Amino acid sequence: MRSTSPPRTYRVKSFGCQMNVYDGERMSELLAEQGLTPAADGADADLVVLNTCHIREKAADKVYSDIGRLRREDGTTPLIAVAGCVAQAEGEEIMARAPSVSMVVGPQAYHRLPEMVERAAAGQRATDTDMPAAAKFAALPARRRAGASAFLTVQEGCDKFCTYCVVPYTRGAEISRPFDDLLAEAERLTEAGAREITLLGQNVNAWTGEDAKGRAIAFDGLVRELAKLPDLQRIRYTTSHPNDVTEGLIAAHGEVSKLMPYLHLPVQSGSNPILKAMNRSHTAESYLRLLERFRAARPDIALSGDFIVGFPGETEQDFSDTLQLVDSVGYAQAFSFKYSPRPGTPAATMEHQIAPGVMDERLQRLQAAINRDQYAFNRKSVGLRCDVLVERKGKHPGQWLGKSPWLQSVHFEGDAKIGDMVTVDLAEAGPNSLRGILATQAAA
Ligand code: SAH
Ligand code: SF4
Ligand code: F3S
To answer: Measured between alpha carbons, how far is 321 from 359 in angstroms, rounded to an integer?
Structure first.
């Protein structure tokens, strides 16, 4: 049973990658423009948007349990919209399986959410999974609110077709947003208080465009242009692909002081036969050479990556090549996942799928190595003096939380406010964060 009066309050729940977080913020802005207000913490919302992720099986299954959980004690449900990558991949199935869902809206069509909400309030169910994204951004309202650190999607989609991955199917082909739009959005974000912007894309460094004078520029050109914004103090980007790394981007890390010394460059495996089966079109060696060039341009750069264990056919030797690559890089941070067969991808039907027990054991060994390196990186930072961008209050009274240039979480006490860039001496390292001492207070 659904109530058919127009919704007044909303909640958007985003899962998956940072691009979904960005999309979730934009959907919230659209709904606010329509006159809805965010439901208070813990309160029931009249409209719930589940902004879903399809990257691994568990993430996709979650959608149905989340829908079930929205049923209220009296048997009614809020208006439910399923957005994001599961909506794109399984829209019709969701509509058939979950009668309480009245809207299915794909990641490239959510600018049409307001009219879908109106129709849904009148009892009409609707699905919109149109692609591509070009029209979406133009139809979104201007940014009004931003935290100290904000996301900005500059590129969408993927043409790489790694054999395990759903993204090319759920997000469509690679497109770059026009430079003028990005500059305008970045300006609005800094006016709204953002001091750091993280440029987002499934392959963010594949971005291309034209600058204000009509000259062709690549991703590093975009970074250099945005660095000219006076109120913007930090620029980050994610996720980049090894094949789209350019000389210019590497050089920018040595030349653009606002570009933070941090690189998230997924490699997935340290074994060349596995990389080939994954259609990654780079080798372990070419990846390592790239990292060396980044390190030459910016010696203190913190490195991060993504790994998949248990890809079909992965032998113990292949896996130990991955461990060896991890040992030789010394990541500051890295993400690792068990391979999850995704419907419609080539790897899902490959021979020699790996037993779950073997995957579990490999994931544990890999994560132990990654955690060891992350802790070592944090310990090595102790004694450094660095800038910290204050992002929020900490757990304890008088405590603040922010990020170091190397994306480490740093907590400290003292006089500060959100959005401040403070100077901190890194005093103590934990596996996941550091304790800092405000430099002004240390000197006093
Ligand atoms: N475009 C980015 C990654 C997007 S998905 C890139 O190529 O770097 C984020 C991560 O999820 C991937 O890097 C990969 O490590 C993981 N991933 C993607 N598909 C997966 C699958 N089928 N099973 C397990 N992990 C997967
Ligand atoms: Fe997926 Fe590969 Fe594209 Fe990344 S590059 S989104 S892993 S297909
Ligand atoms: Fe998930 Fe889609 Fe992002 S599948 S990781 S939400 S691009």
So the answer is: 15
- pLDDT per residue as tens digits for the range 265-315: 999 999 999 999 999 999 999 999 999 999 999 999 999 999 999 999 999
Give dist(CA 386, CA 302) in Å, integer. 14
Query: Do 143 and 129 share a structural domain?
Result: no
Domain annotation covers residue 3: no
**417 and 270 share a domain?**
no
Which protein residue has the closest C-alpha to ligand 1 atom 8?
A: 266
| Same domain for 306 and 199 | yes
**144 and 128 within one domain:** no
Tell me if 20 CB under 6 Å of ligand 3: yes
Protein residue whose Cα sits closest to atom 18 of ligand 1: 165
What distance in angstroms lies between residue 305's CA and the mean position of ligand 2's atoms? Answer: 13
Q: Which domain holds residue 297?
A: 135-381
pLDDT at 444: 43
Indicate whether 346 and 244 sit together in one domain: yes
Q: How far is the CA of 309 from the centre of ligand 1 (A)?
A: 11
- Asked if residue 390 is part of any domain, the answer here is yes
Map tokens 């307001």 to a residue.
Answer: 114
Of the three residues 103, 133, 163, the one that is the final residue of a domain is 133
Question: Ligand 2 centre from 127 Cα, in Å?
Answer: 26
Asked whether residue 287 is domain-assigned, the answer is: yes
Give pairs for 96-104: CB < 8 Å, separation 24+.
Answer: 97/64, 98/64, 98/67, 100/2, 100/67, 100/70, 100/71, 101/67, 101/125, 102/2, 102/126, 103/79, 103/127, 104/128, 104/129
Residue 17 CB–ligand 3 contact under 6 Å: yes
**Token match 């995704």: residue?**
342
Total domains in the fold of the chain: 3
Residue 366 CA to ligand 2 center (angstroms) comes to: 21
The answer to whether the CB of 270 is under 6 A from ligand 3 is no
Tens digit of each residue's pLDDT (9 = 90 or more) over 232-253: 999 999 999 999 999 999 999 9
Cβ–ligand 3 contact at 116 (below 6 Å): no
- Between the CA of 151 and the centroid of ligand 3 the distance, in Å, is 15
